[in-house]
Amino acid sequence: MQAHPLNSPADDFFFVKTQTGKGGFFVSNRAFEMEKVTTTHEDIFHFEYTKPVRQWVAKGEVLDKNSQEPVAGVEIAL
To answer: 60: which residues sit within 8 A by CB, 6+ positions away?
Structure first.
């Protein structure tokens, strides 16, 4: 089985994991192989993870440069 990205150049949407979290479904109008050569309609795709998904949490706080006091209401995006 060939691997395909979940975020392709086509219109990919409605990503949902299965209850076990080991796979899921998404909708896409992507073309694939010789079966569908245009992006004129959507299909439902099923996928299963082949490797464990690594998750991590970053924690920290933002401090004022001069006073070294925590700065309230700061949001950091990665």
So the answer is: 76
